[in-house]
UniProtKB/TrEMBL annotation:
Signal peptide: 1-24
Superkingdom per UniProt: Bacteria
Annotated protein name in UniProt: C4-dicarboxylate ABC transporter substrate-binding protein
Xref: InterPro entries: DctP_fam, TRAP_DctP_sf
Presence of the UniProt keyword Transmembrane helix in the record: no
One GO BP annotation of this record: transmembrane transport
Organism from which the protein derives: Photobacterium sanctipauli
Record key words, sorted: Signal
The keyword Transmembrane helix belongs to this UniProt entry's keyword annotation: no
Amino acid sequence: MKTILKKTSTAVLTSLLLSSTAMAADVTLRFGHFWPAVSDIHKEIYQAWADEVEADSNGRIKVELYPASMLAKPPAQYDAVKHRILDVTATVQGYSANRFPLTQVLELPGVVQNATQGSCVAQKLYDEGAFGKEYKDSKPLFLFTHGPGVLHVKGKSIEEPSDLEGLRIRRPTAVIGSLLEELGALPIGMPAPQSYQSLQRGVIDGVALPWEGAKGFKLNELADNHTEVGGLYSLAFIVTMNQNVYNKLDDELKAVIDNNSGEKWSSIAATVFDRLDKEGLADAKAANHSIYRVDASSNQETWQPVFEKVTENYLSELDAKGLPGRTVYKRAMELSATCS
């Protein structure tokens, strides 16, 4: 009997050891971003991507997620991948000032009407090589955009640009800052996660974010006036990987990463963002907030001239730098009309 038990115990131990060995990952990827761990963006895009990569690699790749800027602050996340503090990140290109000027054409008014359309434009532009060598420092996996930006203000309704005069509005990037300045506001630069505390303390009067951002960063608890101007702006995002880490993968694992890149995941991200825009709007309605939508005639008379000036100013800046901004903008608008 003792012999049988001993053999059984040995067999079980051997099985456990073999199982443990089989499950051990060959590669561990540290994936950092700035969204909260409780957010749907984290769970439905980045955690979902990590789970699929692990499953497709049969456990050979393990992805460790570091949400809420745990390993690098938002403006430093792209460089954190370049210098391998992170192996993968999801970040806003515009947070890295002057590094992605052609990509930031996507931020201009009128380019993006919703996340599905905008993400299609962003990914196709990248796939066509429109952004040149802007991503030479990393291995881009997929690009996407959020939906149209909305003005969320505490205590004041914004119906025309003059209503923004002197208001301190959080801006995500320098391009959006220029837009807000032309509209009469005082743009205050800060990453989205800092918006709630800044609005709560009165450091700012409002924020420029899509409805998804208002929901994800709980701004509907503070801002009670919201203004939608069709195609006001959007932001481009990227999920990108350290190039050397990718290069060192064997062909099988490279294929796993490649199969979880491009249009497939760009589209998945866009679907999540569009749904959250609807939920953020619904939250504001449920709270009986003031929601003002600029109609077509008001847009043409008061907002559109500002949009056209901001667009021309930015494209002229790219011209001065010898960059093909007008070519990229023209192609973006062509894709904007056909992407859905």
